[in-house]
Amino acid sequence: MDKPIERREFLAGAAATVAVAACAPSVSGGGGSTKPQALGRGIADVFTGMPTTDGAGVSLTRVIGQPRLRNLDPFLMLDRFHSDDPNAYIAGFPDHPHRGFETVTIMLDGRMRHRDHKGNSGLILGGGSQWMTAGRGIVHSEMPEQEGGLMSGFQLWINLPAREKMRAPEYQDLQPDALTDLSFGRGINARLIAGTVDNERGPVRDRVTHPLLMTLKLPANAHVEIPVDRDNRAFAFVYQGDVQIDGRSQSLRSNELGVFEDKGSTIALRGGEHGAALVLAAATPLREPIVQYGPFVMNTEEEIRQAYIDYRNGSLAKM
Question: Per the omega criterion (within 30 degrees of 0), is the bond before 74 cis?
């Protein structure tokens, strides 16, 4: 399969070849209680992020959406950006389109300004998040609103089912105090963006893929169990330190993504020698064809061609 076209290549007028991504093999993630349960899910596979650039030259690490892991149904892309060098991020992501999926920005540090073709604008602050449903079409920009200092966070793309790909666009802008802090004790810092854990709900409204999305910071040897729906696909990406999969002789180091097995209803984690910081995500696989051309993700090549035509003639921004 050819390399998926990035936003910068698309905006530069790359040839309109279509990348067809088959649905990933079944591995499995959701929400619930933190009471001790049977042996949790193990790791089915491990992937290392690879350096790349996107937008107008932003340096980042691509974890999902790279040659070894094209997608992880329903997850389409996971990018990690982290730099205190403004030359690595200051050019940002100028106007570009999306259709057919959702984008989630997780800001750890820094300030990112979002604007779209309808005049909507929002500031994503460190500790906050934004959940954008592109649906039938959005043309927007994401630009740093700082001239120096640390810019750190993630962008996650989540697919939409065929019946929702042409729905109306929607934003959920989440300031830092809107995220749900979970009380696990033992020095654990856990912030819930989407889903339910121990009857605590994240601020994101219910989505069709029933996602669980959270950030975790675990001190050394601190243990936590996160429940996940049996039908969900789950992954953890460690961006600092290392984490052990409790009860198993498995671990993940910094810059590694672990795809969890599809068996089990809990994920049991323990901070390594120097602790760990990670993103944990789970959602229901759609098991539909994935046809992607840059910022468009549909079910057929004809739908991709139409999206490209709509963008070129300006009708995508008018829908």
Answer: yes
Is the distance from CB of 313 to CB of 263 less than 8 angstroms? no
- What is residue 309's DSSP assignment? H
Provide the 10 A C-beta neighbour count for residue 87: 9
Length, in residues, of the chain: 319
For tokens 């229901």, what's the residue?
284
Between vectors from CA 50 to CA 87 and to CA 138, what angle results, nearest 5°?
70
| Sign of the C-alpha dihedral computed for residues 297, 299, 303 and 304 taken in this order | positive
Q: Rounded distance, CA 213 to CA 31, Å?
A: 9
CA 281/CA 236 separation, integer angstroms: 6
Phi-psi region of 265 (alpha: psi -120 to 50; beta: other; left: phi over 0): alpha
Instruction: Indicate if the pLDDT at residue 148 is higher than 50.
Output: yes
241: alpha, beta or left, given left = phi > 0 and alpha = psi -120 to 50? left
Q: Which helix (H) or strand (E) element contains residue 308?
A: helix 301-312
CA distance 222 to 211: 25
Closest CA to 128 of 191, 206, 207: 191
Structural domains of the chain in order of their starting residue, each with its CATH number? 7-318 (2.60.120.10)
Task: List pLDDT tens digits, range 102-143.
Answer: 999 999 999 999 999 888 889 999 999 999 999 999 999 999
